[in-house]
Here is the input.
Amino acid sequence: MSDIPPTPPDEDGADPAAEYVLGVLEGPERIRAAQRLRSDPAFAAEVAAWERRLAPMLNEVAPVEAPPGVWDRVARSIEPGANVLPFTARPKLWNRVGAWRAATAASMAAAAACVALLAIRPPAATTPAPDHAVLAATLAGADGKALYVATVDRARAGVTIVPVNAVDGRGRFPELWIIPAGGKPRPVGMISGVRSLTLAGAEAKATFAVSLEPAGGSPTGAPTGPVIATGVLSAV
Amino acid sequence: MDLESQREALGEALRRVGAGEASALKDVYDKTSAKLFGVALRILGDPTEAEDVLQEVYTTVWRRAASFDAARASPITWLATIARNRSIDRLRGRPARRTESIDAALNVADASPLAEARLEEAQGRGRLHGCLGELEALQQQAVRAAFLDGQTYEALARQAGVPLGTMKSWIRRSLIRLKACMER
Here is the structure.
């Protein structure tokens, strides 16, 4: 082995990907490596390769039965309103017509009331012609309970959002976001009560999400609070 | 159930978690929590902290399962890696972020390690152990303590009674040798 002429990744032989995976980096070095992992695909590939090389060592670790309370904490933390939703998963689930119907049926009376509201309060920007598809989404929490119904006008320039069920904001306020397929969330506006908001474009399969934010909206331009409801736009 | 069926069952449960099925998360938890608790406990040495990490791991799994690709990674290794990283983050005094924005949640695919681990895992285990065995005893011990116990360079140097610089070059050289050995 000692006759192998290694080509050190830098002059003192440091290989940050290997050292990151091994876990020996501390403080700023570890943080820098973690940031690089997100921004540098070549570095991420190196890290993945080292994970693959070293992972078999984990077979040496003996299993230890976890205390019974831990699952309950996990279950509570994934409840709707908690700040962890399987966000990337939701579009798949909620794009299904059956799920959409189920969510609607689950709050039949409220949904009926909201349809009535939509009928008497069309979006201000344009009135959709009856022969053109309107995009709509039911925004539901992780338990399937519909919280809002959003309707986008034909010009894709306005959205009307109607609350279907009460939301306990716990001192924060619901803000609507639109997320184009494969894109990043863009703020649409705060949505207490029935609101018509302007919208810079929307497409079928875009996702609406509602997060809880400080009064006045997210200070960062990106969602900062828990996501309480999501729904995918489709033609109705 | 043989290893391959177990792996497939776990991969399928993760796929269902990725589709938003909370009951599947319980299934994943039942199948893997003892292993992941073992990993966290070994690194943290404190059952209360290990419990906190375990909770964080499964809420992370809930968010990230959609980015798990069974064709590219072994499910248990994917999970154990999350548990190990969370444990080390905590050990280093940098608590994992408890609230991640939607933005971060949408970009988790880049954080999934262990591409192609599935095919190579079985052979890799034998190969890694063989290659670790080729290191000098003290250096092998240092690599194991770093990976399994989450020890830093400083702690490793203190325990081995060598200067920090010596420990760094031991580890760095060991990593180079391991890589070369495993690619043979």
Notes: The first strand of chain A starts at residue 135 and ends at 140. Chain A touches chain B through 72 residues (CB under 8 Å). Residues 41-54 of chain A form the longest helix (14 residues). DSSP finds seven helices and nine strands in chain A.
